[in-house]
Predict the 3D structure of the following.
Amino acid sequence: MNATAVGALLLCRAEPSAVRSPAQLLREPQLLVPAGAEWSALVPEGAAWDDGEPVDRVVAGWAVALAVAVGLGRPVLALWWDTERVGFTLASGFRRPVGYVWLADGTPAGEDEAITTFAARLGLDPVIDVQALAPLTREDPDADGADRLRGLLAVLSRAGLELPPGLVPGRTPARLHAVAAARGAQTVEWAGWRDAVRTELHAVEESFDHWLREPRDRTGLKVLGAAQIAVGVPLTIWALRGAGGAGGRGGWAVAGAVLTVQGAALLMYERGRAAV
């Protein structure tokens, strides 16, 4: 592990087509690549923590926002590392995120029950996979922090995760970007709220057009859109009001914005369908 490296990876249990639109709302330049059956990997540029914000706090917020935006049953795993520690945060919808931390030399510094919760939320085998994860919580002088994260990824390979060769924890964002770019990664960039709504509207069109055939379906969509706005706006306000003293709320602000945009897109789609 590079002692000077500070970086992160976001692993989403969803296909790239479902991840791209929500990822734009994080307002962080990233590269998006497939990572196995129904998995995607996002490689952040890294500027978000260059100003001193801890990398674990930044990516934990992103994981929460993506998990809310991408949808139920599609958890997001953030892997992160800095000069002193490494760890992960798993976000699944509005559930409280679960995570674990090791020191850079691989010394466990988390709670064992977090590993069990982690396995349960990802639907891993409660016996075989949990037993395979257990050594990660024990002392091992031959395993540093990056080895711990690679061990975690090895277990997740049983759930279909397959990172492109070279896209491994412990490397600098620049090196990870180079690897992802060589694999034909898609560029994900913030293009403003107008384009964000337009992109989300297109995603709604693709996802729901085959399903929304009857008036009752459109009514249900209208209710869903209104509910997302009703949750998203207060959540964003709450998070922004507390941002000055609680950096961890940044992810909830993004989550609120995501819900608001999705709700607006659903309502716009419903209105367009009704006018046809």
Remarks:
- The first strand starts at residue 7 and ends at 12.
- Residues 7-188 form one domain.
- The chain is about 50% helix and 15% strand.
